[in-house]
Amino acid sequence: MTTLSTRAGAAPYTKLVLRLYDLWVIRLSNNYGWRCNRDYFVDLYRRNIGHRHLEVGPGSGWALANIDLPTDIDLTLLDLNANSLDHTASRLDVPLTLIEHDVLVPLDKNVEKFDSVSINYVLHCLPGDWSTKAGALTNLAGTLTPDGVLFGSTVIGVDQSFTVLGTALMFAYNKTGVFGNRHDDLPGLRRLLSEIFEQVEVTMVGNVAIFVARRPRTRP
C-alpha cells in the first residue's frame, strides 16, 4: 500500500516540472542549494552502472542521458510517478522496462536480479526516519545479484550548514511533504547501509551524501 506521504514526494513531477527539472534541480539547486555539482553524479554512474541496471526515481532521466550507457544495457526504470517514467524513457534510445511502483513496497519476487541499482535523490523524498526508509534499501538489496552494487545520493538534513537557497528549499520542501529529511543524519545513513551491505562507502559533497554499497548481507 502506498501512503499519502509517499505520494507527496512523488506528486510534484508533473510534465511541466519535468521540463524544468534539469535547470532547476540539476544545475541551480545542486550548485547553489546543496553545493554538489552535477559532475559528481556523472562520475558516480560511470563507475558503477552495470549491464542489468535498475534506476529508482529517475527524475528527468538527466544522469542516464548524460553518460555513455553500456551498449548491451538491460535497463529498468522504477518510479511511483508515471510522468517521470515516460519523460525519462523519451530521452533514451535503448530498450526499457518501466515499473510504476512504490520503493517502500517489495518488488515482485519474479523480477530478475540486477547488477546495479541507483537511487539518487529519492531517500530524502521518502517519509519518516531511517527506520522507515530502511525498507526501501532492504527491498533494493534484495533485487541485487551477490556481486551487485547499489549507489545513490541524498540530501542530509541534520547538522548541516546550508546556503540561503538551501535553507529556503529545505523549509519549503519539508513543509509541503516533497522532502522528508529533517531527521536524516549522516551517521544514521552509514549505520543503515552497513546493516544491509557488507561494503559501504559514503562521501559528503556539500550537503549531499553520495554512497556506494556492495555485497548485500544474507537475510533469513
TrEMBL record:
<dbReference type="GO" id="GO:0008168">
    <property type="term" value="F:methyltransferase activity"/>
</dbReference>
<keyword id="KW-0489">Methyltransferase</keyword>
<dbReference type="InterPro" id="IPR013217">
    <property type="entry name" value="Methyltransf_12"/>
</dbReference>
<feature type="domain" description="Methyltransferase type 12">
    <location>
        <begin position="54"/>
        <end position="150"/>
    </location>
</feature>
<dbReference type="InterPro" id="IPR029063">
    <property type="entry name" value="SAM-dependent_MTases_sf"/>
</dbReference>
<dbReference type="InterPro" id="IPR016584">
    <property type="entry name" value="MeTrfase_VrtF"/>
</dbReference>
<protein>
    <submittedName>
        <fullName>Class I SAM-dependent methyltransferase</fullName>
    </submittedName>
</protein>
<keyword id="KW-0808">Transferase</keyword>
<dbReference type="GO" id="GO:0032259">
    <property type="term" value="P:methylation"/>
</dbReference>
<dbReference type="Pfam" id="PF08242">
    <property type="entry name" value="Methyltransf_12"/>
</dbReference>
